[in-house]
Write a structure and sequence with these properties.
This protein folds into two domains: about 5-70, no CATH class; about 80-245, P-loop containing nucleotide triphosphate hydrolases (Rossmann fold, 3-Layer(aba) Sandwich), CATH 3.40.50. It has a five-stranded parallel beta sheet with strand order 2-3-4-1-5. The radius of gyration is 25 Å and the shape is elongated. By secondary structure, the chain is of the alpha/beta class. The N and C termini lie far apart (about 65 Å). It has helices spanning about 5-20, 25-40, 45-70, 90-100, 100-105, 120-130, 140-150, 155-165, 185-195, 215, 220-230, 245, 250-265; strands spanning about 110, 135-140, 170-175, 200-205, 235-240.
Length: about 260
Amino acid sequence: MPNDMITDKTTTIRGYAKRLRLSGLTANAQDILLQAQKESPSYDDFLSRVLEMEIKGREERQKILRLKAARLPLAHDLDLYDHSISNGLSTTQLNQLRELHWVDGNYNLMLTGPCGVGKTFIAAGLCADAIDKGYKAYFRSMDEILTTLKLKDIVASAKREHKNLTNADVIVIDDLMNIPVSRDDGSLLFVFINSIYESTSLIITTNKSPAEWARSLDDEVLATALLDRILFKCELLQLSGKSYRLANRKTIFKKEQEKKQRKVE
């Protein structure tokens, strides 16, 4: 096929593809035609390739949007997890969690333990894994959740956020009960979790044991009711050990000393 005919066909195909919102075909029409001219695929192979390309492109764009909406911390790639640290979670257990079968069964995870033992990193990594497999997953601190609940009937953005959270497959609530919570805020949190616990998997990180939640809420009845929903179908993971951040603390002075040492050598 002459190049001028390919150009004409490309313009026509791009016009149709744009009207149908087939962004992959719109952007790659000419390359697709040139490849077809070179390889001469059958009609069904050609159509299959075009549709496959469009589907993969859409899935990748949706994944990018889900990652943006999740608001993950920078450190969230579990492929980079340091398995040499001893925090009570074995490599086998982590790999099982990464299979995400617990999400399909609407199970929750509660990661407890002192600061720096990897709770947030593991939770964020599992959230990223869920997004990679097509789930709607979000990473939020307890403060962010409470702010949304308090503003959802007043602010449009909070209303949209609340809708997204109530339709989520997975929600990470980071640092739950790490600081005291008023009874009013605790009640809002209970109503929210009560509305989603049967349809959404929660990943909770906290440095408070379940027994300490009553003191954080200053309401034993409310704490018991909240824990009842979360722990109904839940894997409790007690992490321990020394702080990874403190053990690998960065310092500008150490870098300066290393530079001086290299100069001496």
